[in-house]
Design brief:
mainly alpha, 5 helices, globular, binds phosphoribosyl ATP, Phosphoribosyl-ATP pyrophosphatase, phosphoribosyl-ATP diphosphatase activity, ATP-binding, histidine biosynthesis
């Protein structure tokens, strides 16, 4: 049997928490009740912590950065779940971009306006 990826399992739990109307206290259910504004506020907070950890020296700093990125990815996953999107949707978008330089893609964009 192929084991589900951590992200697939996490998205499943997030969907369950979103659907739950009762049960044990849940951080995800609490965030879902606050909607995009509450989830978004946590994303902004966690993004700032990633930036801060990015410059922290040494092995402790590197370990801290991993934890902060995990917090950021987790809260982004909650936002996806809030809109009934799957982690696979993000993977598909990254796959679509694969092999195209960001600089080339940007230069090929239609002018705005
Ligand atoms: N991966 C996570 C995860 N990562 C971080 N967090 C929580 O995110 C919250 C915010 O983290 P912070 O350190 O920023 O918290 P804080 O700033 O000290 O406090 P607040 O500002 O949030 O009050 C904390 O409560 C963390 O415990 C998570 N909470 C849940 N999960 C996953 O979600 C599943 C469902 O969780 P529940 O909905 O709580 O059952 C869990 O089994 C886990 O797999």
């Amino acid at each position: 049997m192929v084991e589900a990826s951590v992200m697939t399992s996490l998205m499943k739990v997030i969907a369950e928490r979103k659907a739950q109307t009762e049960g044990p206290p849940s951080y995800v259910a609490k965030l879902m009740k606050g909607g995009a504004a509450a989830i978004g506020a946590k994303i902004v907070e966690e993004a700032a912590e990633v930036v801060e950890a990015g410059d922290e020296p040494g092995e402790a700093g590197r370990e801290h950065l991993v934890k902060e990125v995990a917090d950021l990815v987790f809260h982004a996953a909650v936002m996806l779940g809030y809109r009934d999107l799957a982690w696979g949707d993000v993977e598909a978008e990254l796959q679509r971009r694969s092999g195209t330089s960001g600089l080339v893609e940007k230069a090929a964009r239609k002018p705005k306006g």
